[in-house]
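Can't paste images in this forum, so I'm doing it all in text. The chain is below; anyone willing to post the predicted structure tokens underneath?
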Amino acid sequence: MTEPQETPERYTVISADCHAGADLLDYRPYLDSRFHEVFDAWAATYVNPFADLQAAEADRNWDSDRRLAELEQDGIVAEVVFPNTVPPFYPSTSLTAAVPTPEEYRLRWAGLQAHNRWMADFCALAPGRRAGTFQVLLNDVDAAAAEVRRCHAAGLTGGVVLPGVPPGSPVPELYSTAYDPLWAVCAELGVPVNHHGGSAGPVLGEEPAARAVFMVETTWFSHRALWHLVFGGAFRRHPGLRLVLTEQGSGWIPGVLDMLDYYHGRLVGAATRAATAESKFGTGLAEAMGAGPRAVWESNCFVGASFMRAHEVPLRERIGLDKIMWGSDFPHDEGTYPYTTEALRTAYAGLPYPEVAAMVGANAARVYGFDLPTLDALAAKTGPLVAEVAQPLPAPPPGATSPAFAKGGSVRVW
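Text version of the structure:
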């Protein structure tokens, strides 16, 4: 008879959504020397539009010791690191920048590769505690696939950040088979394909209405990668491909899977000889995509559910308890620092220990290759107390700015 395992005193928390980047001029050594002169000219006139990248807290993006100390203080022992600061030759952060034109591509690609090299060095400062992501552009798929191999070999275990492809972009939509060389190398090497929120919408401008529309629509545009890759058959052709949808909520997933399954059933009517009005649009779809959307989700997809909201938690079994990876969004203002324990209480109070342990750490360890026993030893000293997380939070901490504590989040429909 197997003895029941004793519940640890503290949770092992791995944030599946953090952000980092170099200070602007510190990218220069990571650029190929042939770009140094043009970089110097660009940097001399560039004005950073982001106040949080100029403030005293900005060095949390690149100060390794400060970052480790603050994350440990907040109960987090490891992180998946997405980009944050502005890389060379970009007008804004790379996550939100539009797909470059052919004329812009050469310099933007050099800038992203500089960031990738910096990220490898930054993660090497904290072995086993940072799974750094790396970036590619889709203008040259073969170059993107080669960069995946290089970054994987350099020890960046966080996977590739898939750029968004807004309507009207100068590259094919994500459902296109043109990207098969990229999917193939990711599947071969076990590299997760991450699609981060905020990276796929069209350029809207800076008017107040435009900013409001961005807030309403941004996550929906990010979700599109899921149905593009599913209906495009990427997972049929590359069964080992893994897709992670990060910082775009999680409560939308059950309803969207229901909707995708509905359309899948109607569209493949041509193959099954079912009489559906939509079947004339689905000719060839069944053969091209293979398994249906829900089956693909269950076998190939995960969600980086940054600061999971309380109203999303009852949907955890429909989303998949083995799919959900909690994230703090450090060091962003909307992140949970320094109130991560309080955020976990808001979402997970009263849940069984194994479920919470999976969502806050074990799932991310499996997807991104963290050594969980090693992190457990660190968390035994600094992780959030299991007994404390089990207690409901009576009120948000004074001064907390994260949407994790916001009332009314359940009105979101995606």
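The chain is about 40% helix and 10% strand. The chain has a mean pLDDT of 94.
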